[in-house]
């Protein structure tokens, strides 16, 4: 007989509640969300003419155990018919660009891409890959991504490809981010096989056994590279919260910001603006810093560690243009920090998901993402930057990088404050210490969400499942 309070109603908190309500051991689940809607960063604008624009995630990968897990949930929610898959043969999967030396370059792919010298790289990448097998294993228990890749594959790949990739996943600086926490597959490949190449060929360690349901099986048969939803990503948390509501076991509260939590004789007292709630267990699905600010002084060492997990701000600017305006076709382009620190990249949304274009007439939808780890240095405080300034920077990037001289016919500026956690070198140690402190102090508390064990939607959902299983003591 357990009451569990889930703090934060982003995709992580909703997912944890979904798994908890599958167990008869949990009597009641209470979700407390400070804002007026559930879903956190999964946020879409659906215009009345049928066009859809994403202000957060726009593609989820089906691969691996975490990808299958999400698709099993999507199936269970009855959302299978809403899926928009993008397979590996699609131009959006084959063509990804980097903008270097004021030019767009298609990232090399396939065997021919490895054998030839493909600009902006100065030699065939096969040489880097072949030499990599001979590089000795690193001795540190963690390393920055830039140092790891420079050591194993060469500085050029680290400066261009990996620098850009880290801006397109973490909006972060690969010279500070941890290889162990951000790319565990690469770290484990070196640890277990002594080489990334051998790790890729032979596998780099055990992965959770997770049988695919019908939708995950379809994704394998049809070779999906990523997927979205017909009415936008926001329909995922909307369906999930409806499912939870209908279960009769989950209370969902919006506009219910947690102010303080205090350990009580059994469990916790949770203070909201307008009342107090008791719970036997807390699953925190809010950002680490937000949890830090509601913990009592008796939890100071834990608060300190939580406070230490930095977040960065991203300006997401959606643009719609009349007609076909792109000079190239593909998923989009990323920009290494040496080329232009402020503009992280541009997604050509109309290419992977033309279904989100307005049905009438022909339009092109783009998203320009700016700031991240470089936000403060270029724009100053997120509190003072104006939408006009962000829109002007975004349209100027589209003009100079894609040669588009026409003005957008529609735009939307979303300033996503503190939206992506930064797993700096040594992150794994902080997370281990947090969980150790929780155990040592017998706190009935689980930490889930993007601050700890992975930032992708799949990782966050899986962290909700893991916490539910640990609490229940069985698989769900
Ligand atoms: C611009 C952008 C693009 C992205 N692109 C992709 C992508 O393409 N693919 C992908 O897989 N991932 C992507 N991600 C990452 C992914 O969307 C996020 O990591 C994930 O959604 C985080 O989910 P969460 O539930 O952990 O956190 P959140 O969504 O941050 O949810 C936490 C919730 O806690 C609430 N909260 C905070 N304080 C309190 C309080 N005191 N009391 C109660 N509630 C509180 C917040 O309001 C919020 O709703 C992207 C992220 C961003 C920002
Ligand atoms: C090509 C342009 C891209 C821009 C600009 C971009 C911005 C951006 N992305 C995130 C967070 C994530 N993106 C993820 C996946 C992902 N992103 C891009 C491209 C751009 N992202 C692609 C092609 C993909 C698909 C992954 C793939 O198939 O290789 C993910 C999930 C990663 C995972 O492991 O599943 C996240 C998280 C932010 C914060 C951001 C803002 C600048």
Automatic annotation (TrEMBL):
<keyword id="KW-0350">Heme biosynthesis</keyword>
<feature type="domain" description="Amine oxidase">
    <location>
        <begin position="11"/>
        <end position="472"/>
    </location>
</feature>
<keyword id="KW-0274">FAD</keyword>
<comment type="function">
    <text>Catalyzes the 6-electron oxidation of protoporphyrinogen-IX to form protoporphyrin-IX.</text>
</comment>
<dbReference type="GO" id="GO:0005743">
    <property type="term" value="C:mitochondrial inner membrane"/>
</dbReference>
<dbReference type="InterPro" id="IPR036188">
    <property type="entry name" value="FAD/NAD-bd_sf"/>
</dbReference>
<comment type="similarity">
    <text>Belongs to the protoporphyrinogen/coproporphyrinogen oxidase family. Protoporphyrinogen oxidase subfamily.</text>
</comment>
<keyword id="KW-0627">Porphyrin biosynthesis</keyword>
<comment type="subunit">
    <text>Monomer. Homodimer.</text>
</comment>
<dbReference type="InterPro" id="IPR002937">
    <property type="entry name" value="Amino_oxidase"/>
</dbReference>
<keyword id="KW-0999">Mitochondrion inner membrane</keyword>
<dbReference type="InterPro" id="IPR004572">
    <property type="entry name" value="Protoporphyrinogen_oxidase"/>
</dbReference>
<dbReference type="GO" id="GO:0006785">
    <property type="term" value="P:heme B biosynthetic process"/>
</dbReference>
<keyword id="KW-0472">Membrane</keyword>
<protein>
    <recommendedName>
        <fullName>Protoporphyrinogen oxidase</fullName>
        <ecNumber>1.3.3.4</ecNumber>
    </recommendedName>
</protein>
<dbReference type="GO" id="GO:0004729">
    <property type="term" value="F:oxygen-dependent protoporphyrinogen oxidase activity"/>
</dbReference>
<keyword id="KW-0285">Flavoprotein</keyword>
<comment type="pathway">
    <text>Porphyrin-containing compound metabolism; protoporphyrin-IX biosynthesis; protoporphyrin-IX from protoporphyrinogen-IX: step 1/1.</text>
</comment>
<dbReference type="Pfam" id="PF01593">
    <property type="entry name" value="Amino_oxidase"/>
</dbReference>
<dbReference type="GO" id="GO:0006782">
    <property type="term" value="P:protoporphyrinogen IX biosynthetic process"/>
</dbReference>
<dbReference type="GO" id="GO:0005758">
    <property type="term" value="C:mitochondrial intermembrane space"/>
</dbReference>
<keyword id="KW-0496">Mitochondrion</keyword>
<dbReference type="InterPro" id="IPR050464">
    <property type="entry name" value="Zeta_carotene_desat/Oxidored"/>
</dbReference>
<keyword id="KW-0560">Oxidoreductase</keyword>
């Amino acid at each position: 007989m357990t009451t569990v309070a889930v703090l934060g109603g982003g995709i992580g908190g909703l997912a944890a509640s979904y798994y908890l309500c599958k167990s008869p051991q949990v009597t009641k689940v209470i979700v407390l969300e400070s804002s007026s809607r559930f879903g956190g960063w999964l946020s879409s604008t659906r215009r009345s003419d049928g066009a859809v624009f994403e202000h957060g995630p726009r593609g989820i990968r089906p691969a691996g155990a975490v990808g299958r897990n999400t698709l099993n949930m999507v199936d269970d929610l009855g959302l299978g018919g809403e899926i928009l898959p993008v397979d590996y043969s699609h131009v959006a999967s084959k063509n990804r660009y980097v903008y270097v030396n004021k030019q767009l370059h298609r990232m090399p792919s396939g065997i021919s891409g490895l054998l030839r010298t493909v600009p902006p790289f100065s030699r065939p990448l096969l040489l880097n890959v072949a030499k990599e097998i001979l590089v000795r294993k690193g001795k540190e228990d963690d390393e920055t991504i830039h140092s790891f890749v420079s050591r194993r594959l060469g500085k050029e790949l680290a400066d261009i490809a990996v620098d850009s990739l880290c801006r397109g996943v973490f909006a972060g600086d690969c010279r500070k981010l941890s290889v162990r926490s951000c790319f565990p597959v690469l770290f484990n490949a070196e640890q277990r096989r002594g080489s990334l190449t051998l790790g890729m060929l032979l596998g780099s360690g055990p992965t959770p056994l997770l049988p695919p349901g019908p939708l995950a099986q379809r994704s394998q048969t049809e070779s999906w590279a990523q997927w979205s939803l017909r009415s936008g990503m926001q329909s995922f948390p909307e369906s999930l919260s409806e499912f939870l509501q209908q279960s009769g076991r989950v209370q969902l509260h919006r506009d219910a910001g947690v102010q303080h939590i205090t350990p009580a004789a059994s469990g916790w007292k949770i203070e909201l603006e307008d009342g107090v709630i008791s719970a036997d267990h807390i699953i925190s699905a809010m950002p680490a810093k937000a949890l830090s600010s509601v913990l009592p002084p008796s939890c100071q060492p834990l608060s300190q560690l939580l406070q230490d997990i930095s977040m960065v701000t991203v300006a997401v600017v959606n643009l719609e243009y009349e007609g076909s305006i792109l000079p190239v076709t593909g998923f989009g382009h990323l920009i290494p920090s040496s080329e232009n620190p402020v503009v992280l990249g541009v997604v050509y949304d109309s290419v992977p998901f033309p279904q989100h274009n307005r049905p009438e007439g022909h339009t092109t939808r783009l998203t320009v993402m700016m700031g991240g780890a470089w936000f403060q240095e270029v724009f100053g405080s997120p509190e003072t930057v104006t939408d006009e300034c962000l829109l002007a920077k975004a349209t100027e990037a589209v003009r100079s990088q894609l040669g588009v001289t026409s003005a957008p016919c529609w735009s939307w500026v979303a300033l996503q404050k503190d939206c992506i956690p930064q797993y700096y070198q040594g992150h794994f140690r902080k997370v281990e210490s947090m969980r150790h402190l929780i155990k040592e102090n017998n706190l009935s508390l689980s930490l889930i969400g993007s601050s700890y064990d992975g930032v992708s939607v799949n990782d966050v959902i899986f962290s909700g499942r893991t916490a539910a299983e640990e609490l229940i003591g069985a698989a769900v």
